[in-house]
Amino acid sequence: MSTTKERRPAIDGWFTVPDEPGRDGGVRLLGTRCASCGTPYFPRNELACRNPRCDGPHDGSELAEYAFSARGRIWSYADSRYRPPPPYVSPDPFRPYTVAAVELDVERMVVLGQVVPECTVDDLAVGMEVELTEGVLYEDDDAEYTVWMWRPVQ
User: Fold this and answer.
1) In sequence order, which residues have a C-beta less than 8 Å from that of residue 88 and are 6 or more positions away?
2) Cα–Cα distance for residue pair 31/43, rounded to 1 Å
3) Averaged in consecutive runs of 10 residues, what is the pLDDT profile of the chain (154 residues)?
4) Of 4, 20, 33, 138, which residue is 20 to 30 A from 62 by alpha carbon distance?
C-alpha cells in the first residue's frame, strides 16, 4: 500500500505552490514591490521602501505583495558538500546539493536557491536559462517540506 505524504512549504509565504488557489499554477517567489518606484524586495519587506531615490511615503503603505518572474539566467553556481548548521533542516542522511544564484528576467535581481537534485555542477553553466519549480527539502513522518528550486529550461 502506498501513502502520499502531505506537502508543506518549509517557509510559509515565501513562494507559491503549483496548486495554490488564486495563483497562476506555477511556482513564483513572493515578496513586495514599491508602488512608487517599483523596487522589488525578496524576501518581503513590509517596513518601508529602502530606495533612497524613491519619492514615496516611506511608511510601508507604498509596498504591495508581488509575485516575481519565474525564469532567469544563472549568474553563479556551486555545490554544497557539508551539512549547514541549524536552523537549516537537511535530509538525514545528508546529501550534497547544488545551489545557483539566478538573475531574474524581469526584476534583474539575483536570488539564491537550490537546484533540482537531478542536476549537478557538471550540468550547469553561467548564463543558462532556468525556471522555478518546487522540490522537497526534507521530510518527516507526517509531511514533505518543500522549497523553491531552479531547474534548466527544457
Assistant:
1) none
2) 5
3) 80 85 79 96 95 94 95 97 86 90 96 96 98 93 94 94
4) 20
DSSP 108: -
**Cell (9 digits) for 119:** 542536476
- Residue pair 120/98 in contact (Cβ under 8 Å)? The answer is yes
Q: In the prediction, which pLDDT does 93 show? A: 87
Rounded CA-CA distance 73/52 in Å is: 28
Pairing of strands 110-115, 143-152: parallel
Cα 93 from chain centre: 24
* Residue whose C-alpha cell is 507559491: 16
Q: What is the Cα–Cα distance from 55 to 20, expressed in whole angstroms?
A: 35
C-alpha cell at 132: 522555478
Residues 6 or more apart in contact with residue 102 via CB below 8 angstroms: 72, 73, 74, 75, 110, 111, 112, 113, 130, 150
Q: For residues 86 and 55, is the Cβ–Cβ distance under 8 A?
A: no
Question: What letter does residue 85 receive in the DSSP assignment?
Answer: P
Task: Name the DSSP letter for residue 83.
Answer: P
